[in-house]
Structures are given as structure tokens and as C-alpha cells.
Target: alpha-galactosidase
Amino acid sequence: MPATPARIVSLRAAGTCFAVELTEPVPRILHWGADLGELSPVDLTALSLTAEAATLNNSLDVPRRFTLWPTEADGWSGTPAHHGHLGGTATAPRPAMTEATHRADPAGGGELRVRLAEPASGLDITLTYTLDAQGILTADAVISRGESADPTPYDLAGALTLLPLPRRATEVLDFTGKWSRERSPQRRPLSHGVHSRDVRRGKPGADSPYLLAVGVPGFGYRTGEVWATHVAWSGDQRYLVEQLPEGAGVHASALGGGELLRAGEIRLAPGDTYRTPRCHFAWSADGLDGIADRFHGHLRARPQHPRGPRPLVLNSWEAVYFDHDLGRLLALADRAAAVGVERFVLDDGWFSGRRADTAGLGDWLVDPAVWPDGLGPLADHVRALGMDFGLWVEPEMVNPDSQLARTHPDWILGPAAGLGPTARHQYVLDLSRPDVFAYLLKSLDALVGSYDLAYLKWDHNRELHEAVHAPGDRPVAHAQVEALYRLLDAVKQRHPGLEIESCASGGGRVDLGVLLRTDRVWASDCNDPVERQAIQSWTVQLLPPELVGSHVGAERNHTTGRVTSDTFRTATALFGHAGIEQDLTECSEAELARLTAWSALYRELRPLLHTGRTVRADLEDEARLLHGVVAHDGSRALYCWARVSTSAEGQSGRTPLPGLRPDARYRLRVRTDLGLPSFQQAAPPPWLTAAVEGWLTLPGAVLATAGLPMPNLNPGQALLIEVHRQD
Model:
């Protein structure tokens, strides 16, 4: 049972700590970061004493404090935790704690729940902070109005979760991107003012901030102290880090985020409730890999996390596009099974009128002109070959050229003045309408049930501009996301074994909100391994590899036109939930043999790749990459040494393999299953020759500390190094 906590509550787990003093009117945050250890009553008194800042000149006459729910009432002049108004009044909130409970978990961590009351607006605010065994601190708020409150609706303009940062956190990392180049990192120094990333696309988007990290100057993959947050929401978002000259109490700045609310979107009448998206916070003393390690552990601990082997996928898109022909697809399925594919996914083009992307969306019936006997002949053939069968859908969208749009134009999101321009020849359906929701659930239920689908690739190919419900033009972007979540939940409830992939023009909807209901993401529409090396490296900053779709494409990439070697393409695709996206019926026997060897290598290595710790080396030259996965017990590792472009240096020098123990001994070898890469050297380092011929034994001090002189690869090449510890 929850117990009334002591005056200071400390949640501790996995080397991290979140300490709060239950002061009045609002509890203040004493510490978030490295574990302070088991503190005695005297120690706790000292922590409280040193949490009081100086009183500044020309300032408040009392020391400022950074509370759990900072507002101007605390003297906080930065972005408030919440703001809004009650018919133009009650704009200066003064929340006060009415209740607090604390629960400690035996495995570490626990939960702190604090209830605040704001009398002027009639708001009740319940804050919940949960620290899990991996050190991830999850925070959310429930904002409600009592049944007896003033009948005037309270217009909530914003609600954010904010945590303080110390003075040494002065460098900011977040992400931007575009279609086929998602999660492109950008860094900047933290200065006075607010660094805010607002998302107004109705989904996180290809330029999603994704993870906002702030650390000590020069923090890298393996080094430096870092604090980070992720907003687990699949719609409009706001991330921010803010530093004021006077600081944030004894802290320097504030980090946080939440949903970006449109004007008039959340109007709380008596009895209404709004729940903020969950914000996940992580601290690491070991750079970005330490942050990734915490998030991967957090996700792998979920009850719904995929436990079995992640099946090797073939997706038909870049093989046939809209040219659906049963004979051609049967032949493709035969080739797929022969090379070791375990899941066959039929992509866009199977439903009524869908011969191009200009028509058919919304009409979720199999096109009888192309599939006179339905999808059954293909699905049955696929299953007879030992593969399961999946299908592409885009339920949230509609083409104007569709029976659905002609019959129900009122189902389309848009203002009463008329619809704006299409994007990708499509509009967005208003999922918040019960009739739209019912139609989509019925359609999806029928498809999954009729064809015994194991998998849905769930796409979302345009942004939500003018996401309002006519008549009245009320904003519904928030309601759209909530309806999406309900729809995903309902489909999964009816078909418990079904897996769903979150796709949005590639990687435009990659967040932990949608991943509560889906089983993997499509990281990018771009399979070019040069681009994918970076895209995948940064996608696994948040997600473990088994949740990240990673496919081998054709020699000439369909999105960039770049020609790459098959060894580079296959080595790159290993480090995720692997698949194939090319026309196998056009491959030579030699190409098929290499894909067969690669699929066998994937099946051999996926127990390591999908459970181990992701590691990345800090290299001074972005033309070269070294990343890998190390087993949690340190017994095995697989590394990828890759070059994406040329550089001025002729030698790479000694390069330590991250994640190994200096005091252990190891055997290593170069995996030649995929063939050897192309080198730019007259002769390789001697160790490489030995490791190609067989196992080479080396001390951990050489591998992990001194490092190996790495071979010089030509651009667009990769080498796989396997390591086993000698016990």
C-alpha cells in the first residue's frame, strides 16, 4: 500500500537518483542525476540546506525555488508548467500540494505521486514520477476540473513536464531531418533564453527533435555526463531547454517537453480531464551510449516487447511497386523463401482502384480487377512456403478519388471554408468521429481476419494541416492521436498475435507513444546503406535494434540512385530488424547465394543483436564509423567498421573496440560470410590477415584500451568483426 512519505523522497535505481522535498505550497526538486547513495537524516538535512539559493539583487526578496510544477508564483520567469485561462480570468495559477504518496520498488526505483489544487481555476493536478529499474524517470500529469467547478470552460494553453539541469550541462543535441534523411543530429551551445523545438505536423515528422539531450561540453557516445528527454506522443510536440540569468533555483536551467496544444483544443468543463503525454527522462555518466542503454532496457522490460526471434522480412514495394500480378508475386515469394525470408509483406497497390498513389485510399477492399480471387492464393502460397503474410495499409488517409471520399466528404478533416491542397494526393480522415472509427475498425478487422494476417505495415503519408472539425472549426489534432491509439488498441485486442509496424513516409512517426501499441518502426524509406549507417545509428539512440526495420535494397538505390556493394548493404541491414526490399526474381544466382548466406548470418546473430548493448565509438573523422552490439554478460560482440566517404587521413590509427573489458582475453575473427570489403591499401594490418584466416586471441587491454590499427576501406564498404570472450 502507498505510504505517506518522509519530508524528502528519493527515488534511486541503476546509479541515478531523483530527490524531491515535499515543501509547501509546491514540492521542490533537490536533485536529478547521479545517485547520491543512501542518505541519513543528517545527510538529508544537508541536502535541503544546500538546495537554497542566494537572494539576488534587484530580484525577489526570497530565494527562488525550482518546483515540480514551476509557475510565476515560484518566481520562475521561464516557460511555466501550465498556463491557460477561465474565460479570460484565472491566468495566474497558484497551485498547492494537497496530497503526496510514495512507493519504493524492491528492485530499485519507485513512484512519487503529488496532487496539487489550483483554487482560482478549479484545477486538480496529479503529478506522477516513476523511476524504473533501468534508471528511466517517467513523468506525466493529469489535469482535471471538479464537478462543482465554475461552469466556464478552462482553456488549457500548455502543460509541460520540466526538470532542472546543473550549470555544467551546457551543450545541446537534438535532431532534424527530411524524407529519407531522418534523425540528423545537430549541436549547439546552451545560451540564455529558451531553445524550443515545436512540432506542428500532427505527427513527430521526419525532422522530429526525437531526443533532446544536454550535456557537459564535448560529450560523445562513450564519454561525458548527459541528461535527456523524449516526449512519448505521436502528434504535435514541444521540447525545450531553457536557461535564465538567475538560474532555476540552485540549478542552472530546465529541460522538458509535452504536447503542443493548439488554441482552443483543450477546454476543460467541470468533470473534464486532460492527461499530458509521458515524458521520459534519462541521465548518464557514460555519454550517449549510457542514455541508449537505459532506454533499451526500459523498452525491453515492457510486457508487450517482442520476445521471439524477429523474422526476416521481404517487403514487395521496391520489387513491384503498384504492378501487382499474381504470377510475378508468386515467383517473388518462391525466391524469398529460398533465400531464407520468414515474413512476406505485400505493400501498397492491392486495394480498389489503386494503380497509382492518386486513387483508392479509404476503399479497403481487395481490387477484383487485379485480384479476382482475392489475396487468398498469394497468402496461402506464402504460408505453404513457411513464411507468414503481411499487408500494407494507410487507414488514417483518403484519396479524393475514392468511393469513401465521394460518399462521405464530411469525414475529411478540414475547415468549413473548404479543404486546402492535397499532399501526396490525399487528405486526412477525422478519426475522432465515431462513424469513421467504426468504419476503419470494421475494415481492418475484416482484412486481418480474412487473410490471417501476421503483420500490418501501418503508414501515414501526409501531415495534418488545418486539422479542424467542421462545422465550427474546432481543433482536433489531440483527439486524432487519441483515436489512433484507440484504433490500434482495438485491432490488437481483436487479433492478439498481430504485429504492427509504425511507418510514416518512412521514419516520420517514431516515438514511444505509438510504440506502446506497435512492434517496430520503419526508420526511413531510404535503404541506401550510406544514409542508413547514420539513420540507424541515431534511431537506436532511443530504440533497441529489434524494433528498427532495416532492409537490403537493390544495387542502385531507389531513393538516392547511389550504387553500393552488396557486402555494404547486407552488413548495414544486419543491425536492426532485418529484411529485403528488392526484386529477387531479377537477381543472379551469385546475388541470391550471397543473400542466402546473409539471411543465415542474420538468424545466427539475431539472439545477440536483439538483446545486447548497443555501442558506438567516438571517432574524430565522420567518414568512418565503428559500432556494434555487446552481450550483457560480455561473452560476445559483433562490430561493424564502415567507411561512408573518403578523408584526408591515410591511416585510421589504433581504434579501441567499445564495450569490452580490459582485464579479459578475447578471440576475434572477421566474418567473411558476406565476402570481404574493398580496401584502399597495399596490404592489410597483420592482425586482419590472421583474423580472416581464423580466430585470433588478443588481450582485452589491446582491444579495449590500446585499440586495433583498423584497415583502410574504400568508401561504401564495411567489415564485420566478431569477438568472443575466453573464460
Remarks:
- The chain has a mean pLDDT of 97.
- The chain has 13 helices and 39 strands.
